[in-house]
Amino acid sequence: MVKKIFLICICSGFICFLCVACRDRDVAKSFPEDISGTAVSGNYPIVVDETGKERELKLGDVDVEDKGVGFGSTYYVGEYSQVVKGHYYYLRNISTNKYGVYRDQGECECQFTLPDESSECYVREFAKLGKEYYALLCDDYDLDNIVYQLVCIDAKKGTSKVLSESSQDFFINSMAWYKGAFYYKRKGGTVVEFGNGHKNFREMFHMHSDDMGNKLLFLDGKIYYGSQLGNEISLYSFDLKKGTREEVFRYERKGKIIRDMMLRKMLDIDEDYIYISNDMIPRKGGEILRLGDGCDRIAGDIAHNKKYVFYCDGDYRLHRLDKGTKKDIIISGIKAMNVNCTEDGIYVQGYNKFYASGRLDSEEEDTWHALGDYSFDLYYMDLDGRHKKRIWKGNDESYAYKGR
């Protein structure tokens, strides 16, 4: 009897050993090197940063079509631009408190005036949401009593209606819309949600004070944002359902530590890359691509479609990078300040004129400094930078502050 029990134990142990060996073999097969030859650790691809260090990219699968809509800056009205379903939208000032929304190569979508109670406000941020347009208005003449108004624009009637108003002693910026609610950041780095008649406010999470100006990306149920500590850049996500925050990716740069202002305006994710600052992080693994020749050497944003990436370098030359071949070429000689693209063409803001205005630097010193009043021509080109067509001539009527 004892011998039988002993033999059963021996056989059972051997069978268990075979099962474990087979499992380990299958696990090894399930995590091979990817097609580019980059080793994969666990379920995550490995990305090599500028210092040569290997980093795990813990992004996982995301629905890149499930994306929120960020409001575009209109500090200068000509800054606002937005691509929606293959169409390019932009805003222009027509007269005091009157604006026009245009599409593609000059087609006027609507004109609207601000409400009477908004006569002292200027358009701070703007967005197309579905069939409607929204604007965040601001009156900051008295910095101790800043007034913000969120208005909805009736495109057919050419009027606008105040939905929500607040008087704050802090700045509101980075307005966005995602899944039935508005979001914004306020001074101190607090991200706030408001909805249900635009009256119920809820604090979501607090960013580090150094990161409060950095761009937010609403994507697939999460808020993403970038952070910098020394030469390290981190990408964080905040889960809107779970209320948890995680570090998605961290990488290091070489050279002198420079505060990266590009984190304030560039963060996006598509099927191929994470676009953060002037870096392109390959989602399948590999080396990080760096656009331009150093920190703050990109003018404007980075635009991308399925095949190409477009950007303006620090010398305001328009570049096109092929995602497949990684070939980067200059495609236009105009002084390009910003670029957007669709699958069929590109829209370029080209420098037109600088309108200088003076301010007294101090009461003691009779020193004047020029303020940055710029105007931009707007051009349409094909994806090769050819067939250039100017669709808007810049002038001094293009400012958010005009008429105040």
Describe the structure.
With 404 residues, the chain is mainly beta. It is 7% helix and 50% strand. The protein has one helix spanning 2-30, and strands at residues 40-41, 44-48, 54-56, 69-70, 72-73, 81-84, 87-95, 98-103, 107-113, 122-129, 132-139, 146-154, 159-168, 172-178, 181-186, 190-195, 200-206, 216-219, 222-229, 232-239, 245-252, 267-269, 273-276, 279-282, 286-287, 289-290, 298-304, 308-313, 318-322, 328-332, 336-341, 345-355, 358-360, 368-370, 373-382, 389-392. The strands form 9 sheets. The protein has a 5-stranded antiparallel β-sheet with strand order 4-14-15-16-17, with no helix packed on it. Strand 18 (216-219) and strand 19 (222-229) form a beta hairpin.
Using the CA coordinates, give the radius of gyration: 26 Å
Structural class: mainly beta
Instruction: Determine the number of helices (DSSP H or I, runs of at least 4 residues).
Output: 1
List low-pLDDT spans: 1-41, 357-372, 397-404
* Overall residue-averaged pLDDT value: 81
Please count the beta strands (DSSP E, at least 2 residues each): 36
Residue share in helix: under 10%
Strands side by side in the biggest sheet = 4-14-15-16-17
Beta-strand content bin: over 45%
Q: Measure the end-to-end span.
A: 101 Å
What's the story with the biggest beta sheet? 5 strands, antiparallel
What general outline do the C-alpha atoms trace? globular
